[in-house]
Amino acid sequence: MAMHTSHPVSALPSAPARETTGHLLLRAWCVFLLVLALGGVGLVNAVGPVATAVVVAATAVVSVVVWVVVRPPHAVRRLPWIAAGYLVWSTASVLWSAWPAASVLTLLLLWVTTLHALFVGAVLTWRDVVRAIASAAKWVVGLSALFELAVSVIVRGPLLPGFVVATEPVVAPWSRGALLTGGRIQGIFGDADLLAAVMLVAVIVFGVRLAVGAPRRALLVVWIVVAGFLFVRAQSITGVIAAAFVALVLGTVLVMRTARRPGERTRWYLLYAAIGLGGGATLWFGRDTIFGVLGRGADLIGREGIWADVLARADRHPLIGWGFSTPWVTSEPLLGGWIVDRGQPVTQAHGMWLDTYLQLGAVGVALLALVYLAYLWRSWFFAVDRPRWDLRDDRPHSPLTLLPTLVGALLVVQGLTDSGPLLLWGWMFVILFGAKIKQTPLVGVGPSEQSISIERGELQRPTP
Fold first, then answer.
1. pLDDT tens digits for 367-399?
2. Nearest to residue 186, comparing CAs of 216, 215, 158?
3. In degrees rounded to 5, what are phi and psi of residue 362?
4. Could you read off the pLDDT of 41-100 as tens digits, one per residue?
5. pLDDT tens digits for range 141-185
6. What span, in angstroms and rounded, lies between the C-alpha atoms of 322 and 360?
7. Does residue 80 have a cis bond before it (omega within 30 degrees)?
8. Shortest CA distance to 398 belongs to which of 213, 218, 219?
9. Long-range contacts for 19-27 (Cβ within 8 Å, ≥24 apart)?
10. How much is the average pLDDT of 15-33?
11. Most CB atoms closer than 10 Å: which of 94, 136, 178, 213?
12. How confident is the prediction for the chain on average, in pLDDT?
């Protein structure tokens, strides 16, 4: 008669823990929310702002219902209260806004984005957050590549929003159909700079997944190649500068992780600070030569003229601003026809700090600065410090902790010439990562991480 004991040699093998259907559906919903955040501009170009608003409102309702049903553990005192201050001030600006209807409309988008960021961080573990962002990035990368290929092969010319084929030359089409001709491409965003920024996010998250040891590594390499190809074809100067800064931050983090003695990091901080300041000064004072070599004007395609106009208006209400509207709603007379660039109404100040100064004044700029300082501070030490919750101080670093600080580096550079970090995926990642680090400062450790792991059958504490 066969005998079985609890001894490891004779014990029956147990099946690996499986994710519940509910958790798979929950992560799929989070992936959908992240796709909307990363590629929301493409949805507006495809179906229009009204249909997009309906979709966004519906997702908010669903997320609230799911949050109530799932009831993930959440420490109220660890919510991103500094960001809440910025949200409250933005909402209060409706009281003195010069464009109240535009303020209300865009504030709804800001609040929904914040809700989704907190929701994703609350219901997913760190590993699932990174997996979900990677899955969403694959959708956006794939859709951008297929969209540009279809326009180049089928339309063979410019395509306008709403899938309208241009019958005459246009300045700012949705797609130029230039994928096969060597020109600058814009993906599903209709903007080459936005395409470059999202492709850089994709390369970062795919790289982190590779470092973690994710399955199907060869396929991940293919995704990195495709995202890198689209990044290069976007021909974005801002994207190139952001990529260089992200590489500098990555190198700094990896060097800081090698520190073994107190004070050893100080010299590295001084060295990299000198490199960063020197590079920034060289870029600014030598911008005529550098941008000329790269095929761009020193004013970054008219941005200096836009900045001058925005600053002149902002200085008329320097303390509290004119009222929130991110992006600028073109149907509002004071915004839509105010600045026109190459025949198209401008929808942003092309600089998040200047845009905030225009809309929310010096108070808003101070609050936003606090939001980013808190985020960058937490994400930096989340990346460079070893995971520690007891006396042991030799645990290995997790590659997952690189993602928040690298994305933060991208947003800092992007925010200098673009207002993207104030909405959609830029703002979502600031809230998502900032809140997640506060709630769960160690990968795999903490109430939210453990509760979801138990639901999936992993009764032991996950290791970072």
1. 999 999 999 999 999 998 887 766 566 677 889
2. 158
3. -65, -30
4. 999 999 999 999 999 999 999 999 999 998 887 777 888 899 999 999 999 999 999 999
5. 999 999 999 999 999 889 999 999 987 777 778 999 889 888 899
6. 7
7. no
8. 213
9. 19/456, 20/455, 20/456, 22/455, 23/452, 23/455, 23/456, 26/66, 26/70, 26/123, 26/124, 27/124, 27/128, 27/131, 27/132
10. 80
11. 136
12. 86
pLDDT at 298: 46
CB 398 within 8 A of CB 354: no
Q: Letter for the amino acid at 48?
A: G
**pLDDT tops 60 at residue 317:** yes
- Beta-carbon contacts of residue 364 (< 8 Å; ≥ 6 apart): 86, 89, 90, 93, 320, 321, 356, 357
Nearest to 386 by CA among 266, 258, 264: 258
| Count of residues making up the chain | 464
Exposed, middle or buried: residue 147 (CB in 10 Å: 0-12, 13-18, 19+)? Answer: buried
Tokens of 450: 């453990």
Whole-prediction pTM value? 0.89
Q: Residue 154 has which token pair?
A: 């089928």
At 231, give phi and psi (nearest 5°).
-60, -45
Between CA 261 and CA 207 the distance in angstroms is: 29
